[in-house]
Amino acid sequence: MVNLDKYKSILFEKIKNQLTEWFEMNPSNEVDQEEVNRFLHSLKGTSGTLQLGGLEQIASQLMLVAENREVSWKVEELRDFLYELIGLSYEYEHFHEIEEKPTINRDESLPLIQVIDDDVSMLILLKDALEEQGWMVITNTEPTKATKNYFDMHPDCLIVDINLPTKSGFELLQELQSHNSKKFIPTIVISIENNRNSRIKAYQLGADDFIKKPIDIEEFIVRVNRHLRRKQLFDQSVLIDELTQVYNRKFLEDSFNRSTNELKRLNTYFTIAVLDLDFFKKVNDTYGHIAGDRVLASFAQFLNDSTRSSDTVFRYGGEEFIILFPRTRDYEAKEVLTRLIEKFSKIEFKENGQSFFVTFSAGVFMVLDGNIDLKSAIKTADQALYMAKENGRARVESANSLQHGMKKKVLNVSVIDDDAIIRTMLMKILKSMEFDHIELDIEVFEDGLKYFESKRNDKKGQHFLILDGVMPVMDGIEVLQKVKQSKNANQYHILMLTGRKSDQDIASALKLGADDYVTKPFSITELQARINLLINRMK
Ligand code: GH3
Ligand code: MG
To answer: What is the pLDDT of residues 21-35, one digit of tens each?
Structure first.
């Protein structure tokens, strides 16, 4: 039996070189159609011989189209045309290296686990083990960044190592405790110090579990699983948000359905409002998250006290609230809310002897069609909220009076990778993704220098960077460092692509503030699922 592996690698090398050559051409150049035909022809022949059935099939299909073509190919066009081939050959080439992980479910209800440990090899190990279960994991080595991530991402389970740099895990727990206990986020402490005092202290600070290092992974997974299940049960059985004492998301579903049913039966109408505090991040940054929590609770209480008893207030997400106004028109709700904004803006908050004021913005949407679902209603009201923010905050806009084609929030997504194949694949993956609230503005760069030269980093709004760790010109770590030192550093969300298990790279990336990493070579579906989840969790 001839060993075909060697020939397969040669073939893939050839495919890669040809595609790279084409894609790196100046976009104004074109590729002769004959050239593409010849390439596909030879590909079909060789892949057949090498028993690469899938590749042969794709090549044949593409050939049918290519042969009938009479004009040359624009680079962009060719890229789209050959996309399937690119993806397939990438996965073929790395077939042995890509670990078969269960595909991450796209469901937003997938549990999100936050692991905080400064020992990077431990972090990688735990992340891999947890992800193998199909759970989503975010990791942090550094407590301050971890706290921020915790409030931004709302994980469903927290795993903390006691020995952390700059701040001990105990201090971190203490900081999160008042928030954590009310939200019921299962918290697991891991530690090398397994003595009675550490355990007692951990439990006193709200830990639900204490696991000593070295960790028995199998047992660890079982325990995490058990915590997640209890959390799920808890979430399902509770209708009131503990922190703010208003109804939660789950109850909103029921109430909304009741409202639409009534609408269908009685032919009435109601208005849904989405409310969001203005510049709330600043409150958290200036006075701390606990102060932020207090503001949230007062805000919710204020809403409850100032609305009619038939109006219902819900906490929808972190600092987003929803009010259902039965038998109310959008402009009526708008009037009510405008008055509330005025009143709320006069309430004085005090922290450490300093006083400050907070405002909120709102978007309203009058529902007239009983067949609409909650998600679409919120989405529409959210667009009005976005307009209210755009128009200067501390105000209300109505979706009913807004023109069609309302603007979505733009997320600047940049891919920096020196490998043309990967850039093409990522571009395509990103282009195929759709989000309710966010529109992606995607650009790819072959190295960090080009990225900074383009001035794209100065663009207003949030940035999502997909960053290759190793690049010949200004590598990923340098880019990361530069971005993190810039004035809009906190607008960045960064996903690093790193070599398989290169602990050192991962360690530096996380220390410098990367939000997540994926090891190369990756499975395309998995990468797509991960990007999807990260962007959905970003707001
Ligand atoms: P904008 O006026 O555009 O709304 O600006 P913003 O600063 O309020 O920005 P955004 O609404 O995007 O930020 C929400 C922040 O709320 C980010 C997150 O850390 C914080 N947050 C979310 N949930 C909680 C929570 O339960 N407690 C605290 N303290 N903060 C939270
Ligand atoms: Mg806000």
So the answer is: 888 888 888 999 899
